[in-house]
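Q: Sequence in, structure out?
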Amino acid sequence: MLERAGFETGYDLDALIETAQWMAGLLGKPPAASLSRAGGFPKVGA
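A: Exactly. Output:
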């Protein structure tokens, strides 16, 4: 949400989502965060 509003967070959301999905696979449970299940926002201008 912050990145979509134009704020720099310094986080790589795609890498965080990938890590959450990897961990969910190890644990055998779906990720708890909605963003991890839905995926990131489309890139602006893409």
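The helical segments are 13-27, 34-38.
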